[in-house]
Model the fold of this input.
Amino acid sequence: MKNNFIVLIISFLIPFYLLFQPQSEASEIKNLKIHLRGLGSINLNDRIDQIEKKLSIKFVGGKEDSDFDGKPCYFYSIPDLKSVLFMFTGAANDIRLGRIYINDPSLETLSGIRIGSDVQSVLSKYKDNIQRSSEHYRMVQK
Done:
């Protein structure tokens, strides 16, 4: 009887233990909303160390051969979340977020727009904040 009682208590407490464990970095990022200045608490121009501290994560990645506007580029991602890529620029001791590349349809804007949203939804949500222009690209034959 005593052993059954202990098993019952343990089986009852395990779901609560799991419920209150910290989420992984990937699941925390997936809960953030895209906005004009960034993603959740991450803002453009934040330093890499600020973002790592805000999210309690450690980025993986590093410097690329390319540069942006004369500054070195660094591309980082979060382990277990390859669908979000962060581009930083700047000197080695002052690397700041310049862009966030998102390829995850589960992430959405504050207005509910996400990858795959239809054009009418985008137009109705952002009305006068959209600028339409046509771009002309040409193929370069090699």
Q: What stands out?
A: The chain has one domain: 23-127. DSSP finds four helices and seven strands in the chain.
